[in-house]
Structures are given as C-alpha cells and as structure tokens.
C-alpha cells in the first residue's frame, strides 16, 4: 500500500481515564499505517518512515471531519459512535432513605 492510498479513519475521540462526562469528546481523523514498523538495528527501537501514522486531527463534528477528508482527497472510513450506558443520577441522601430495600455498603 503506497502512502497516497492509506485509508484514514474518522472516529469519536475517546475520553481520557480521568474523564467521566461527555465534554471534550469530538471527532478525530486518524491515518492508518502505510508501511510496516521495523526495529532499528542500532537502538532496537520500533519505528517506520511513515509520519502520517503519528498524525491525529481533531474536529468538533463528524461532518467537519468528512468535509476535510473530501476536500483533501483522503479516502476514509467512519467508525460508529460508541454507545454509552445511561447514567442514573444519584444523590448522597439515597444512602439514608427510609424504607431502603438494599443494605448500605459503605
């Protein structure tokens, strides 16, 4: 696969490990590797001459990422947006509610 035919992926930006909400989750355009990684004989580190694999472009919407890819003639695939479980709001007062069926665990 040559460098010009590398397919880019448009995906929903993952949340950081310290993030519980949905803020700062936009869309990313990530290039797939165009050449295999190999070990450097001198240092033993893995690497390749493909610098596009290191590039991640961020966009606020999926449509903006698709428009950028079309404008620059970049073939792309769109990954489905991950489904998040609905979070039931809780309050600290629930721990002390009268008639609570389950035991207070902490």
From TrEMBL:
The protein, known as: Oxidoreductase
Subcellular location: Membrane
Signal peptide start and end residues: none
Pfam families assigned: NDUS4
Cellular component GO terms, alphabetical: membrane
Lineage: Bacteria, Pseudomonadati, Pseudomonadota, Alphaproteobacteria, Acetobacterales
Gene3D superfamilies in the record: atu1810 like domain (3.30.160.190)
Keyword annotations: Electron transport, Membrane, Respiratory chain, Transit peptide, Transport
GO BP term (any one): electron transport chain
